[in-house]
Amino acid sequence: xxxxxxxxxxxxxxxxxxxxxxxxxxxxxxxxxxxxxxxxxxxxxxxxxxxxxxxxxxxxxxxxxxxxxxxxxxxxxxxxxxxxxxxxxxxxxxxxxxxxxxxxxxxxxxxxxxxxxxxxxxxxxxxxxxxxxxxxxxxxxxxxxxxxxxxxxxxxxxxxxxxxxxxxxxxxxxxxxxxxxxxxxxxxxxxxxxxxxxxxxxxxxxxxxxxxxxxxxxxxxxxxxxxxxxxxxxxxxxxxxxxxxxxxxxxxxxxxxxxxxxxxxxxxxxxxxxxxxxxxxxxxxxxxxxxxxxxxxxxxxxx
Length: 303
Hints:
- The chain is mainly α.
- Helix content is 75%, strand content 1%.
- Strands 1-2 form a two-stranded antiparallel sheet.
């Protein structure tokens, strides 16, 4: 394989691996803007991954499974919002509880519904088809970089400007940002705080459902226990890394996706234990958060 092929393959893998991170990051950004840090992104993604495979297998339609994943993500997000807003549960504990509930619940349902554990790969369920445009998809470089992915990859690209437009150019989006800045002030001027919180988190739930669906049926149609593997927390870290800005959050997700793509290549090209390379994307997250904290402390020292 020549150097150009290697670069193109890594770039294409970065775009695929960055897709669930971008979708989850947009969900985390919406929750952050409304003043509710959603630690439960991981659980929402995992629920979407399980739902798209289970429902897709039952109906023999991956598109029906995809719609079901969106609905389940929104319903779980609505329950999470109810718990933390009306029932006043601790935000962090509620998010962790959601993650643990979905992790254990999907493993249990995997055993009860399909009589298996670990991994479920339905033989008759196909993954989402890749986009093919005659002429364009056959181009040697641009075809592989722009016209060879499943629809969810392009939806992740579209989600970034749509979230930005929603937050900065619509009335509900401006309400959401106002609530995040000062909830009591927003309530005093008549903004429906609780309704906007439900809106932001349920939209995020839909995006997480799509993120999980990409993990399950974006390339191969299968579900594996805890297959999200910390991606929800990586997406949340990307939001903080970008200070809550949609475009920069997406770029941060692609950076993390690049590290994940590179570690796959390094595993194939080195005799070093694979666990060393598998930790690289998560090490990048730790380093990033440490740099963000150091930058804040540095600014405080000069203010």
